Amino acid sequence: MNTNAKYKDSVFSFLFSDPDVLRELYSAIKGITLPPDTPIEINTLSDILYKDRVNDLSFIIDNRLVVLIEHQATINRNMPLRMLLYIARLYEKIIDNSKIYSTVLEKIPTPEFIVLYNGDASYPDYAELKLSQAFLNAGDLTNKKFLPLELTVQVFNINHGRNPELLKKCKTLNGYSFFIEKIREYEKALSLNEAMKKAVEYCINHDILKKFLKDHGSEVINMLATEWNWDDAIAVNRKEAWEEGREEGWEEGREEREMEIAYNALAKGGSIEFIHEITGLSCDVIEKLKAEM
Prior knowledge:
6-stranded mixed beta sheet; two-stranded parallel ribbon; disordered N terminus
């Protein structure tokens, strides 16, 4: 696991950081069969696509530089732009900058951008997001063969029951998809913390991600709690900012918003320390709110 406390690994990045598992996943996504000895170099950058969270993996495999993201929230249509900034940083990391001034063509790994969507909002099995859709004069470029710059993000829906052929080809991805679905099923009747514990127990008993969950069950629960509480807090924050619509309104209602964010996070099983971190409320205030629930 990432031991740097500033960056919180996601369960996804923790599970798929194993080169053998990542190789299996990439082969399934691309519909190819890579030999088990195909080298894979993981070079993920921290704190680029998701603030304070490592929810992505970047790696070089078979002369391709791949940026792979698990996305649990509503699909962000700015993802191509974020990927553009990310890939530029990656190339800076892996290329000797002095060579770009040479007259000899510097060969670089072919980039690929993949999002695995695991949110609970409706989304097709497959979609593509393009950087050109964000251009101010995008309409003028629609029927032109030449684009000055393009970047395409492939989005695959990996919720349980979607993209069955993809999930069938990668046992680990299929198990992960089922595990997340099981948590959501249990959460309808239980607290988030209890739902996660029940899902871990169920999957171990039914040989789904068995070794991973037996070895790392408590870490998985802690990571998921942080991820999901953070997403809930951000969702509340965005909704209320939209409804307020004014900077002065935001300032006037800030304390109420922070209290509601804290309430939602507590209801989902968030720790007092985590809620203090995302809201700025004192631990005493959060403890009092928890006691009143």
